[in-house]
Every structure is written in structure tokens, then in C-alpha cells.
Amino acid sequence: MNKSRIFISLLLILTLSFIAFFPVFKNGFVTLDDDIYIVGNSVIKDVSWKNIKEIFSSFCLGNYHPATMLSYLIEYYFFGLDPSIYHATNFFIHFLNCLLVFLLIFLISKNYFVSLVTTLLFAVHPLHVESVAWVSERKDVLYSFFYLGALISYIYYLKKDQLLRFYYFALLLFTVSLLSKAMAVTLPLMLYAIDYFFNRKSDKSRFWEKIPFLSLSVVFGTVAVFAQYSSDAVSHTTFLMRIGAASYGIIFYLKKLFLPIELCCFYPYPEIKAGTLLKELMFLPMIVVFFILTITMSAKYKKKLIFGSLFFVISLLPVLQFIPVGQAIAADRYMYLASIGVFYIISELLCWVYLRKNKYEKYARFMLVFIIAGIICLLSILTHKRASVWKDGISLWSDVIRKYPVNSNAYYGRGLAYYNDSNFENALSDYNRAIELEPNFTDAYNARGAAYFKKRNFENAISDYNKALKLKPGLVASYYNRGVAYAKKGNFENAILDYNKAIELKPEHIDAYYQRGLAYGMEGDHDNVINDNKKVIELNPFYIKAYNNLGIAYTIKSDFETAVSYFNIAIEVDEAYSEAYYNRAKAYFHKREFKKSLQDVRKAQELNYAVQPEFLEKLIALMSK
Question: How far apart are CA 96 and CA 499, in angstroms?
Fold first, then answer.
């Protein structure tokens, strides 16, 4: 291809996609997994071998995607919780994916027009907003990047007389793609689709060639299913309903692809009764018949139609609810990669129309380009508008409520957003509505209890935690939250019992150890205060309040030397920790090191700590003697 043409194409793709997704750079985090994956995730907030091991050895929200979690770890290390950085990263990976789509389609079609149109549709389609605008869906754009790279490497392997370095590179990229998101398990099937497109004959060597890819798919697929079961995300339905849900999904995605309106971050299951098909399913036989007739009547385009269709269906296989997961039947993000197959077919069709010979071909081509440009601009406008919906949790869940006004999850999600904004009245209102719609909504009871707690209505908070635990006896958060509520009421005995249960269910619950240490302190059990705060430090060496509490406990036990050593560590970690300076001043006082004590009191005052006047006066008097 002409280099200037490539440069102009890439500039066009970048410009249009940047304009379409511009609102995401001003968006924040949303109360849809962002609070768990990023904002409240202690694992990404410290670069240590312990946390890296945790990332590679554990699931998060029923998913195994260590490569994605590592990307958050790196971002947090350099930029903290600046949401614009996370959004910029998502957009940048999306743009790289656009470049890979352009190269992939060119390698397949050898046609600049087809490659450009396919890529432009991919770059600005509203269905892709969820994958790009949602920070927690980093896994989607990331796995797609390595997935597309693996496909391109495999095609180079075929074109370069099976040069093994391209084969091994494809295998490496596939592995990283799997580590980014389990949906990459479909790649071996996609390799067979590429073999079909390039007329590779099936034989034993072709089979053994795919074994490493198939093996990785089986391993990571098994891990993914186990992860979903471990989080109770898998529901149990009949075989007929699963087939119905899969068929519904295919129709749903095609409909949204060609008419991307009323998009939503949460599509609840429609009512499917045994023996009754939804009206959408009536279109499935029609689509199948149309597809068969089309490829039968068009021998020249048969292979392209079949390849594009295979790309679409193969990419969707893991999310067609053959294994029913979650409470949503579909999601916009699932079309991120699958849409490429349909866009390719559309682009080949438009290319065929463009190249048609007739006496009006000059005007027809102009009109066709004009129409394509209009469609791209319209999609960009819809994407720009949709990206704004992801501004924050309140905006996002309000959008769901407008479209599904009786969905309990939407009210619960918006309630969390209001809670994070300290708007506890609106949070309570939404939690009430969620519980009204779903009386056994365990998480809503727990969340409402937290809102009552913030309003200092501890009785109602404890009542809601009791309800949550009755519905789900192993809910760690409710035991912990109820313990905190009991402590606020001065019932430290019950608080300690709840912290014990939380720790029993989750042995590395740092906050439970910390709060239990506080409760033991109020009970006068300073030995257990020391034990619990040492455990906190063992789990998180940067938990400075634990060092401060250890210093206080050792001061009470008259071990002033040890107390000072812990206050020293707290101040080393945070030089502006005013309370540690003041508490160290008291320890120095007991050691009769009055000069050091006074220096610490003055430092605490500089940091706006409320120093006891009596203590300061006593120190000054002692120093004047």
C-alpha cells in the first residue's frame, strides 16, 4: 500500500475515534466493579511480590485475568487513582486494536477499501463504548489486542512458508490474551477458520499444529468456569432455555449492531417460559435461510461470507449463555471482537457495490462514499453521546433505570453511587426500592445497613445486617459491618464476636483485625491489641494506624522504648502523621525526655493536631526548671 495513504488512513481513524470517545477522558470511576477492581482494591496499591503472587493466584469477581490486574498495578504505582489516566489507557489500547483490525483485514482481503471501512466501523461503533469507557472492562480491549496480534502472527506464519518464529509468537500472544480475559479461549477455532479461508487442507500436521493452542484453551477455560462457580455466578436452567438464550443472544447482538439505540450497561433476562419462544427468536430461522441462500447464490463471495460469519459466532461462543452466568442475558462489551466479522462482511458488500460497472458508476460511487461517511459520522455522534452516560455511577445507573424501571440491580447500583457521594438519603431511597422489587436482595440489605450506619442509626443498621446474614450466613461484609456497628453502640463483646467470624471466613481480613484490636483496647485487653495490630502489619506493612496503635498499647504497658520505636516507624511512613507525633510525645514524657516530648508536641501543633493544653503547660513547666 501507498505510505501516504496508510498515514492518512491512520490519522483519520485516530481523529474520528478520539472525537467519538472524547467524553471518556472526563469520566470518573463508576459503581460497576470499578470500586472493587480499582478504587477499593488493596492488591493493586503496592508493588510487591506478595501482591503479584496474589494477582496470579486468585480470582476477582469470579474472573481470572492477572495481566489486566497488573496493568492496574502499574497505573496506580505511577498515577494513583486519577481516573483520566485509566480512561486514557483504555482508549489507547482501543486505538491500537483499530490498527490491528486494519492490518488483519488487509491481510485477509488484500483490499484497502475493505480494511478502512471495517476499521472505521470498529473504531466508532456505539456498542464498543462499554469496552472502552468502563475502566473495569480493560480486560476486553486488552485481551482483544493480544488476540488480534496472535491472529496476525498466525497469518504471517502461513504466508512466510510456516516460519516457526511467527507460530511461537502467536502462541505467546495467545497466552497473554488468556491471562487478560478468558474469552480468548476461542482462538484455536478462529485459527481453523483462517485455515479454511486460506484453503489449507486438513491433515494430521494441521491437527498437531493446533494442539498447544487447544491445550491452553482447555486449561484456561476450566479455570474460568471454576472461577465463575466459585463466585456463585452460574445459575441453573434447563437445556431448552439455554438454547433459547443463545439464540436470543445472536438475534439481540445483530439487532444492536445494525440499530445501536437503547444501549444499556445491564440487560436483564427476558421472561422465557418453557416451550415458548420469544418473538425475537422467530427471526433466527429467517436469518439462517437468508445466509444459506446468499452463499449458495454467490460462489465468488461464499468464502468471505462464511469466514465473516464464523468470526462473529466463534467470538461470541463463550457468552451465549450455554453456561448461564449472572443476571444479564447480554452485554455490549461481548460484541467488541465479534463485530469485526460482521463489519468485514458489510465492507466486502460495499466494495462489491463500489466496483459495479454501469453508466452511472461515477455518481453511484460518490453517493456510496457519501452514505458511508454519513453512517460513520452518525455512529460517532451516538458513541460520543453514549460515552457521556459513563460519566459516573449515578449517570450510568439512572440510564438503566430509565430503560428498565423495575430492575432491582439498577437501583442498588445507583444507591452505591449516591453512598459514595455521601448522599445517604438518596442511597437509602434506592436501596429501599431495590429491596421492594427483590425482597431477598442480600447485598442491598448489607448496603442499606451501611447507609443507616453513616446516618448514625445503628439499630437499623444492625437490623439490616441481621437480615443479610439470615439470607446468606457466610457474608463476610455483614459480619464485619455489624461488628463496627456494635462497637459504635459500645457493645464491644458482640463486636469482637463478629470480627472473629469475619476473620474465620476471611483469614486475611485486615480491617477486621484492626477493628478487633480497637475493640480489645476498649475492653482493656492490650495483649490482644498488640497481637491484632501485628497481624495487620504482617498483612500490610504500610498500614500506619497499626503502628500508632502498637505504640499506644506499649505505652499503656509502660514499655516506652518499644512504644517509641513503633511511633518512629509510623512517622517514617508518613511524616505528616500528627497523631503519631503527639503519642510519641507522651511516650517521651514517660521516659522523662522532656525536650524531645516538647518538640513532638510542637510538631503536632504545626500539623493542626488538637493538643491538650494541660499537657503542653506541664511540659513547659518541667522544661523551665
Answer: 47
